[in-house]
Each structure stands twice: as structure tokens, then as C-alpha cells.
């Protein structure tokens, strides 16, 4: 595999290949030393119901009944998408998030104050909180940043028995996604989820079923989200300047003649 | 109580004082419980609703409620509306207490209260939250200096008072600029999630919506407390001033309403008023309570001329704009089946913080020269 030449890594998740074995879910827990707990199925086979501070990746089981009454299953792996320009990174007031050389979005425990803006700001709702702790941290998929730095592949990809995930330099991953779309007409819906979403992410998806039907948020705009807030913040110096000048002028105009009052007042004081 | 020559020190009303202390004590106990057991066990916050009552009311609304501080100082010192000078100090006091309590609410809300100081040394200049923290810190200091003359007069430190007076104008300007920045940035929090916040609220103008509505809320709050405290201390109502404040609220609300509908129309989002289900309902409710009913009330001469009428109208504005902050915060996070209702502890802490605000205000106006006798220059 020509995977370790380009520094920035990416992953293509080909959902048509997933058989729902949940091997990735187990490998992730074990590599990241996350707690396991007693869980129960709630109306479907997805377990746990959503990502949480101990579950960085999870397979969603989605059953659709098609016209011929045959159930069609989709198995959806979710984890952090590792955005090119992450909303969490820009939102965090103390800069607790950073992007590694390999493109992993990682969290610096020592900085976090627990404001949870990253959770609210993330377009994919990925960061989770240790609600039961009295000294809680944010938790999320790290792209196995430690393994990447060592030149290894992430744990979930390593164990996958059906090579659902194509791992490599980000550019090659994009090319591979386009190649698969082109070479298999009719196999996939014509969309690479993650190529444009939120300005592009390190993880991308191909699917046979429309993304909107299998729990993907298709409303996410195809632009870098931090650009919106930066548009506001970058104008601060101009706004401050304009306000100071404007207020000064208004005050000078509205208070004209006030100096005369003041000097007569102080004269009176002196006379006293 | 020492009589003060420059201002009246008012007798403390006994009624309700003990109740306030009890509410503060219960709130403090609830806060201690939250520190002891963590956020999960004490609140109804979750991965689906990480920001709840404390962010919506204690922080977003608390800061907006304190907007009377900069609005009144702007009226008095920039626009030279001398009429409002007697309420400048109470307004500054309200703002200062407001920010102090907001910071307390923040420390209770964040997961790592002991790390509250991190943003002051660990800077992320691309973060709206960072900007807000910096502005709130600086503005709290400005408010402390703006209110300091009350202490200096009380303890007759005339030398210091003279030095401080030289800085009145720069402080007022700094306060207005800092307020513009962070009042609008509270709306800016939600810009980064255009697909999550319902189209009824999400617009690139959201920061300005927050700013304008904060002015209306701040002025309504100043008029509310002027009326209530005049009653509590059996002082004469300064009718001219509260009527003027009512006019200020009315004008601001009209601008807000026009801006809101203009923005909705420009974005082609007017149909959302009826088609967004629960979000539509709450959006219409907040506009009705906080904007349309008060405009109708202020438009009536009988209301504008009566203390009770002005008090009622101001109360509508306060409730309605707080509902707006709650709505934006909640619907920004809500999925189709998100449920959130604050836990008892969240409610008790919030009530405790509000009670603390009233208590501190009472203590300050009782022991410090905050209100001047009508007609008397200080």
C-alpha cells in the first residue's frame, strides 16, 4: 500500500462493503481503553444508541423495507470526521483542539475548561462529555493519532474483515473515491460525503443508499464553518475604530458648550 | 447608617429580605451539590443538550439584562441627555452586579470550575467564546471603575474621586465598545452552526439581533427596577425618567421588529413562521411577548402615562427577550426528538443567582450613595 508517503491521511468508508460485525467498535474500545458497560437494544440493532464518552466509533444498523417487502440493511460507521478546518478547533476558547501533521483532530486535556462549545459547534455532533465525572473531559475519536504518528493504521481499520475503509494520503483517498464512483455506475449514489461537507473532511463516505435516508446530515454547508465566525471576529479592529471615532464625534457635537459650563463651575468652586 | 451629604442613603426594607437570603442560601447549596456530584447527576444536560438553562438564562440573558449599563451611560455622556443622569449610577450598579453574577453562573456551568482562568492565558483568537470572555473580563473592570465613585463618595476619598472623574469619558467609551462586541458575539456563538439553528433565527445578522434586543431588554430592566425600587424604598417615582425609558424601549423594539421581519423577508424565510412546527410556535411566542405586545402597550397613552402600565410593558419585554435567548440556545441543539427541561438543581441555582442579584442591589443602594434625591445635583 502506498499509504505512508503523503503526510496528511484520509479514509474512504465504502458503506456497501460493511457487514455490521462491529469489529471496529471493539477494536476502538480496546485500543483507546474505553469502559464497556451493560447495554440493551432499544428498538433496533444499533448499540449503543449514539456515540458517547466511551464509544468513539459505532455501527448504526438501519433497516429499510423496499417495495418488494425485502428488508435492506445499511451499516453506518460513525466517528469523528476530522475536518480540514474543524469547527471545534476554532470554537474552543482555550485552543484545546489541534490538528496533527497527519490531519487528526486531537484534544489537549490540560487546557479544557468544560464550556462544551465544541459539542454545540461541531457540525457532526461528535465531541461527547463525561457527564458522570466530577472532573469531566471531552472525549472523541482521535483518528488513533498515536498510531498514525507511528506509521500505523487506526485500530478500526486494522481489524475490519471486509476492508470497508480505504486508508491513505488524503489526495489518494479522494482519487480512489472518484475512481470507484466512475468505474461502478449505478452502484453508489453520486455523492462523496465529506468531500465538500463543512469544507472537506479527512473521512469520506460512499453509499448505495441516499445519505439523507441513513442518518447523515445532508444540510451541512459545503464551506469551512470557522470562516463564518472569523468573518465577524476579523472585523473587530475596524468596528472598534469606527465606534470610538463615531462616539467621540457625537459626544463632541452633543456636549458642545459644556466646557464653558464646566469652567464657570470650577470658577465658582475656586471662589468658594 | 451614616447620613451622606451628597446623596440619600435609604432605609432597608425588611419585607422580603429574609426570603432573598433564604433563596440565595438554597441556590448556594444547590451549587455545592453540583460541584460535589458533577453535572450529569445534578442537571438534565446531556450529549444532546450540552447547553441548558444556565447558559440560556444565567449567561446569555444575564449579560443582555445588564445592557442598561452601557445604554444609559451612552445616553448621558455621549448623547448628553442629562435627564437620565440620576439613573446612570443605578444602571451601572445593575450591570456590574449582573456581570459578577454571570461570571458566577459560568463557573458553576463549566465542567472544570477550577480552570476558569485558562482563557486569560491560553488564547484562541479565532474563538467567539474567547472574545466574549475577554470582553466580559474587561467590561467588568470598566464597570467596577465606573461604579467606584459611589464607594469613594461614601468614604469621602475626594482626592481619588477627582482623579477617577478624569477618566469618566474614556471609561464610558470603552464600556460602549466592549458591550457592542460581546453583546453581539453572544449571538455570534451560533453563527458557526448554520444548519443546526432553525432558519427563523439563523442569519448572518444574528449578532446584531442580539445587540439590538439587548438594548431593549437592558432599558426595560432599568425602568423595571427604577419603578420597583422606588416602591420598595417608598421613594417618589421619577415619572419623567421612566416615561423616557419607555420611549427608548419602544423605539428600540420597533427597530428590532423591522430588522427581524426585513431580514426574514430578505432571506425568503417568512413562510418558516408557520411551517417549522415547534420552532415556529416558540418564535411567534417570543415575538408576541417580547416585542408585539409591548409595542402595543407603549403605543397606548394610558399605558405610557401610568407607572403600572410602564411596569407591565417592561415585564413583557424582559420575559420575551429571555425566551428568545432560550429559544436560540435550545433549537440550535435540538434534533427532532430532543427533550430538555431543567432539573430542580438547575432551577434552584438560577433562582439563587437572581436572588443574589437583587440582594446585592439592595445592599448597595442601602449603604452606598446610588440614588440621588430628585432635583439635587451631586
Structure, described:
The complex is a heterodimer of chains A (272) and B (378). In chain A, strand 6 (128-129) and strand 7 (138-139) form a beta hairpin. The model of chain A is unreliable at 263-272 (pLDDT under 50). Chain A has helices at residues 23-32, 87-91, 117-121, 145-149, 155-159, 170-183, 226-233, 236-254, 258-271; strands spanning 9-14, 58-65, 71-78, 97-99, 105-107, 128-129, 138-139, 165-169, 203-206. The radius of gyration of chain A is 26 Å and the shape is globular. With 272 residues, chain A is an alpha+beta fold. Chain A starts with 8 loop residues before the first strand and ends with a helix. Residues 1-7 and 374-378 of chain B have low confidence and may be disordered. Chain B is 72% helix and 0% strand. Chain B has helices spanning 17-37, 39-42, 53-65, 68-78, 85-109, 118-121, 128-154, 158-166, 168-188, 206-232, 239-266, 272-275, 278-299, 301-304, 307-333, 344-367. Chain B contains 16 helices and no strands. Chains A and B meet through helix 2, helix 3, strand 6, helix 7 and helix 8 of A and helix 1, helix 2, helix 4, helix 7 and helix 9 of B.
Name the descriptors.
heterodimer; A: 272 residues; alpha+beta; 9 helices; 9 strands; disordered C terminus; B: 378 residues; mainly alpha; 16 helices; 0% strand; globular; disordered N terminus
Assign the structural class of chain B, choosing from mainly alpha, mainly beta, alpha/beta, alpha+beta, or little secondary structure: mainly alpha
**Which consecutive residue ranges of chain B, at least 5 long each, have pLDDT under 50?**
1-7, 374-378
What global shape of chain A is seen? globular
Main sheet attributes: strand count, strand direction, barrel closure of chain B? none
Helical fraction of chain A equals 25-40%
In short, what is this structure?
The complex is a heterodimer of chains A (272) and B (378). Chain A is α+β, with helices and mostly antiparallel strands and 272 residues long.
